[in-house]
Amino acid sequence: MQNATAAQAARMLGISLDTLRRWDREGKIEVQRDSANRRIVTAAEIERLRGHEGSQVSSARNRFGGVVRSVEIDGLLARIEIDVTEPSRVVAIITRESAENLGLEVGMSATGVIKSTSVMVET
Q1: In a domain, 110, yes or no
Q2: Where are the alpha helices (DSSP H) in 14-108?
Q3: pTM here?
Q4: Residues 32 and 73 placed together within one structural domain of the fold
Q5: How far apart are CA 121 and CA 63, in angstroms?
Q6: Is the pLDDT at 54 greater than 70, yes or no?
Q7: Would you say residue 53 has pLDDT above 60?
Q8: Domain span at residue 33?
C-alpha cells in the first residue's frame, strides 16, 4: 500500500473527509503535508487506524468508542449499552450469539458503529 491523499485515506478508513480533517486537528491521526500543503496519510498510519490484520473493513462512518455499561441477554437478543467517550451513550440490540462471540462484559472497551438506523458492536 502506498501513501494516500486525505480523500483516499478517508475512503480506506470508512470515514468522511470532514472526519479525517477533524481527527488531524485533534491529533488523532498523523498526517504529512505535500509541497502544496495538502494532507498525505502514510500507509502505516492507515493500517494503524484500521486495526489488526484481517479485520473487516466497513463503510460505516460513525464510530463511537467507549465502555460497555450493561449487557442484558434475553432469549435470542442481547441489549448492549455503551458509554461513549463523547457526551452521549449508544445502545445496540444484537443477537445473543453476537454478544457471546464478542465476549462483551461490563467495563470492557467497545465501539458502537452507526450505519443507517442500525447500531453494530465491535471490540
Answers
A1: yes
A2: 17-26, 43-50, 96-102
A3: 0.44
A4: no
A5: 10
A6: no
A7: no
A8: 4-50
